[in-house]
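Minutes, methods subgroup
Present: GH (chair), OT, SY

1. OT presented the first of two proteins processed in the latest run. Sequence and structure tokens recorded below as shown on screen.
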Amino acid sequence: MEQLFELRPRKDLLDPTFEGYKLSLDSLPVYKHEVPVAVEHLKPNEEQFSFQHVKTFGLHNHLIDDPWSDEVAFFISKDLQIFKINLHSLVSQSPEFKSLWQIPRYLESRDGWFNASLSFAGPELAVVTDGGGVLHIVDTGVRTPTNSHLWQAKLSSEVLGKNDPFKITHSMLNATESNQSETLSVLALKVESIDKVESQIALSVFGCSEKETPFISCLEWVQYEHVDGHWSFKQLKRLAIPHGLDYASVLSPGKALCIIAREPLGIIFDSNKDVAAPLANSEIMQDETETKIAYTWTESPEEVTVWMTFDKQTSKHDLVVKIESQALKVVYKNQTYLVGELAHPISVGSSTWTLSDGKMEVILSKVDKSLSWNHLIQSDLRGRKVLDAETAADYESVINMGMKEGQAESGGRPPVFSSEQLEECDDMPMDESCIFRFDGETNEFTHKAILSGQLLFFTQSAPGLAPAFCLRHDVDGLIWQPMGDELEQSWGCLHTAALQALGYIQASKEQRKFTVAPPNMTYAALCDAFSHIYIYRQSNCTSTGVEMVHRPTGRRVGNIARQQVLNIDSTEECLGALATNSFLLLLTSSSLFAIRVNSD
């Protein structure tokens, strides 16, 4: 059970006397530069029609900042080159755009791919994907404006599936406790058809079905290990998030995650251990006279047939059946029902399973048709060998009775009413998003808080910290920083800054595409998809540009909150936005705009 915690705002960061923003007509320096190679924004194809696809493509930001250097920014061109931007050069007529690395391109067509993404895991390490299924670990060297070091790929992997598109959401590099090696954690987002998701438990546990949720978001947590100069795969965990992912980050030192999403969600796959509830040995190794029948099976010279009985309402999404050359595993929802080594090898390609009215039939094709099977699963006494399907049907009533007795012994009771009896007015909306801490060692959610306000945006934090996120609180936007696990206190999120009235303002901007704020939180910028930029300077911003006078009293006001509106000279869609303490950057397909917001 998760430990509930609260997001408690700091009163000293709130301003109850805030009266609003004053419109300023001051002009800001705007520098427009053509990019060396155009930027292409990929869009969903005809098969990617879910809301989760639209969200993943539509909110992709093509400008990438670097937590380890506030003097550079990056973007990926249409031909998959990674360019570095020297921010100080943008005020000159000769801006510095340097191509650092060419992402390998294995296919000519990028139809169905996500947009290429880049994340900086350490001061000299980055992870890159082409958006089409390949993950690259890249040595970047020190990323300063003057360093001309070209990047080098250290490992390229299709660990998340060949030609399966994904987007990198966060990455973090951590040294192990012995300092003998390093561990790289990468978070990748995939949106897949539920029939293609590899899972160790049934997706129906999270309410998934082809009719209601044909697509599902999966958060892939991949870990690599760096030992003696070589990178190697370490572990993969997969979390199912049916209603879509809002935020995900790795918490220092890389043993837990912070996730914002709607329930239900949970882990469905772990490459190092099974996440399904195990079958107790006491259920398998019983005296033959006391053993309860769990399945029946028979054989012919060509094949072995296994029957198992479940509730009549059981669908294929309630079951996970894994057939291997000499092993069989059946999971019902999140409980293992049958697992073990088969008596003899089988042909996996010609073996199959079906389900009808709660009765599952597994057909295993023999490799050696001259062998007779004395048992199905080694040391599993719960099965009965029968002559044919008719004899197996006689055992169904016995199996069903055993299932009902098991429910009675465990205190299970039939429901008071069926969910089918509920009408639309009885349905309780579950629109609340929550923030979770997921422990990678126990595969459990340890902390949970219900978000009382809308998630507005998230922004980069100091090196080694998870990105911060902004939540609406009343009319304001509050910045929250997820804590690392090194602190000797209960986990939570720290309130670090407030953007006055931002929640109210953002709700009125229907054409808004990006919301960004710099590390020092002196302003926030809302960027429309086309042309308009709204900048909201906080009262603590020293770059006011003009001294104001309070008319009723004649008192001079040094710093006030101000609003500035800009109209960008471009008909192209805004593909990226990035805020630094000095500059606001906007990227279109062919141009980069640098707006000098604050003087150094």
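2. SY then presented the second protein from the same run.
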Amino acid sequence: MESLISLVNRLQRACTALGDNGEDSALPTLWDALPSIAVVGGQSSGKSSVLESIVGKDFLPRGSGIVTRRPLVLQLHRIDEGREYAEFGHLPRKRFTDFAAVRKEISDETDRETGRSKQISSVPIYLSIYSPNVVNLTLIDLPGLTKVAIDGQPESVVHDIENMVRTYIEKPNCIILAISPANQDLATSDAIKISREVDPKGERTFGVLTKIDLMDKGTDAVDILEGKAYRLQFPWIGVVNRSQADINKNVDMIAARRREREYFAQTPEYKHLAHRMGSEHLGKVLSKHLESVIKSRIPGLQSLINKTIIELESELSRLGRPVATDAGGKLYMIMEIVRIFDGIFKEHLDGVRSGGDKIYNVFDNQLPAALKRLQFDKHLAMENVRKLVTEADGYQPHLIAPEQGYRRLIETALVTIKGPAEASVDAYPSLRVEVGHAAVESLERMRDESKKATLQLVEMECSYLTVDFFRKLPQDMDKGGNPTHSLFDRYNDSYLRRIGSTVLSYVNMVCGGLKNSIPKSIVYCQVREAKRSLLDHFFAELGKREANQLGKLLDEDPAIMQRRVSLAKRLELYRAAQAEIDSVAWSK
């Protein structure tokens, strides 16, 4: 069982080393899940004396006002033989055999964190004591509860201490050691008051009654010690600490323990309770109870740790690797990023991700709809046909078919197709917003090339008419009338209407062809080129950058950087905890 308490000691040390004090709600906390014993009491309740009696050493700072200004995690390790010594978590390789030096180091380390301003801090101090006169036990000594701030302290210190104490003892894994002086009314006890708030049924509270020997003559604490005045699940334990005179005379702790045993054994009121009174009994009871609580929590701890490791690894994976510090590492990281970007970009185009369907929608719906909206009928109205045909004939009317008139009608109609053709090209960059702005320059260049090629298709149709289509016209005209009619007959409505109908048929034929060729042009010049050369463009741009510019490219939100560091530390903690618990579980 001793290894279980040692296990929790190691995990608590790891928590503090890696910044887990149970306060940061933005990160999962292992500290809150670990069983612990918190020592709670008001100032002058005898709290420090109780701890020193359990340890058997005089090692805690003393004085007036608030002496304990940081939580002290006191880890006791029983050794079979050898000289007693102490070690601090912040001085891992330094052994203290002089406990007066331990007291001074506690004060100095408190000042290092809080300054000499009598402020308080929730960052704990870790102190391990190795002795043959202790039981294996871990206690957390919290600042004493107070009702009034002293000189040099803000008025808020009263509430700050109470809030700190409450954050420890309200956790379901915390065992509360409530210290109350017997020479004061229990109803006014600060420790009992705050313990009752967080543990109303007294299921995890141990009551300790101090200063029993200082009660007024004719009074005793039997009702309290027997649980009649205030009932807890666990029996009350009374202790008799050294008096101030004993402390001033440096009375030996071992002698003080002996006098404490004699007091309870020889005092008639407490004689029947002597077997469960005293600081030695208190230490043994707490050690045994802590061991049983830890043992019951091991399966839950293992489950929590395994689950949290998966969550931390998942979030770290989403945040990505930290930014490299050297130029080579930065260049490699940027190249990896652009490779990933290029792969995702191609997936958008190929339909693995959303985006490629928008290109197809332009080809299949937007372009045909835009061509359909072109007002060819209005362009080929009777008056416009007459105007263009007569203008094309000039002073010499056409003989068989108005070839120049046809050309002008067709060219002016086909020019209007440039609008939908350009719109088809311009519709493509909306995808750029979805895949990121890094490719804008390259995609703009490809778009210009695509637009140029697409407009050339329209211009080709304008510059050369399909001859086979018009070779049928004389035959058709023979069927519809005699071409040797008079000049005035050639410009009648029926004749012009037939010209307009022929031109419309030709324009529709051209539109049908462009509906197929424009998408091919866009895909070849823009989509295919983007898939083929976007990565090359990125690498070419990277080659132009100086080493100091690479760092600027990788500038990251400081909040994300800090989050990654915090998550990495917390993951390190949980992995260490996993290994520690697994080793204990296997050894069992």
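Chair's summary of item 2: Residues 427-438, 476-481 have pLDDT under 50 and may be disordered.
Next meeting: continue with the remaining queue.
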